[in-house]
Amino acid sequence: MAMSEAIERIDDYGRPAWLALMVLGFIVFWPVGLVILAYLIGSGRMGCGRHSDVAHWQERAAERWERKRQRFDAKIERWERRWGRHASLRPTGNRAFDEYREEALKRLEEEAAEFRSFLDRLRMARDRAEFDEFMRDRRNRTANPGGDSNQGPPPAQA
Question: Within 29-94, where are the H helices?
């Protein structure tokens, strides 16, 4: 494991991991703890000095989460390559059940695709209605320049 990978791993656990490593370094051999402390202060991981701005830490946190997500995705990919996409769906030995399960999964996938298509059509219809309303309002404003679209004073409320 390269040094940068080790640093990234420790960064994933955050400041408590760095502090524990530093304390352990002081216990084992005090110059090691001192070197880790100097590194923490110099790199800004302690949140003091010239590195203490919040935006910097938010950026670093976002980068850490992105690295974690990428590592998780890579683990899932390796698992799927090794065991297959539906590893839990290996043949049971009962061909009738395996065929039934395959048919049910295929039917569910088809229904899911139909439902996604339905939702897309629904969103398109809603977007079309909103756009048509916008264009209608715009035409009304253009046809009635300078005047309010409301005709006359508003009704008095009692």
Answer: 30-43, 54-83
pLDDT tens digits along 77-124: 888 777 766 656 677 788 898 889 889 988 998 999 999 899 899 999
Q: Is the dihedral of CA 29, 34, 39, 45 positive or negative?
A: positive
> What is the residue type of 126?
R
Q: Would you state the structure tokens that stand for residue 71, as one six-digit string?
A: 């590592």
Q: Which residues contact 47 (CB under 8 A, 6 or more apart)?
A: 15, 57
d(CA 67, CA 9): 10
Beta strands in the chain, from DSSP E residues, in sequence order:
none
- Give the pTM: 0.34
* Gap between the Cα atoms of 44 and 82, Å rounded: 40
Q: Is 153 left (phi over 0), alpha (psi -120 to 50) or beta?
A: beta
% of the chain exceeding 90 in pLDDT: 16
Q: Which structure tokens are listed for 123?
A: 């969103």
